[in-house]
Design brief:
This protein is mainly β and 80 residues long. Helix content is 14%, strand content 48%. The longest helix is centred in the N-terminal third of the chain and has 11 residues, at 2-12. The chain is globular, with a radius of gyration of 12 Å.
Length: 80
């Protein structure tokens, strides 16, 4: 499923210039395993893990997911 999940992440984000990370596209939110909904986050798609970085109250928060533990990904976007 890694390739499928990778495609979903790529759909929901765009490359962050000068890095290997990706930022969520404008107006797109993402939810992994029915957990927290990330609205403004940066994704890093590593070989063995996915890291999601968000900023809250002046802090950077990193959440890590093992590729094998991802069972669902939900994307949210506005209709036109």
């Amino acid at each position: 499923m890694n390739k499928t999940w990778e495609k979903v992440f790529e759909y929901a984000s765009s490359p962050l210039e000068g890095t290997m990370s990706r930022k969520l596209r404008e107006g797109v939110s993402i939810q992994i395993n029915e957990g927290k909904i990330y609205k403004k986050a940066v994704l890093f798609l590593g070989e063995e893990f996915v890291r999601i970085t968000e900023e809250e109250e002046g802090q950077k928060i990193n959440t890590y997911y093992d590729w094998t533990s991802i069972s669902s990904i939900r994307t949210y976007s506005k209709t036109k």
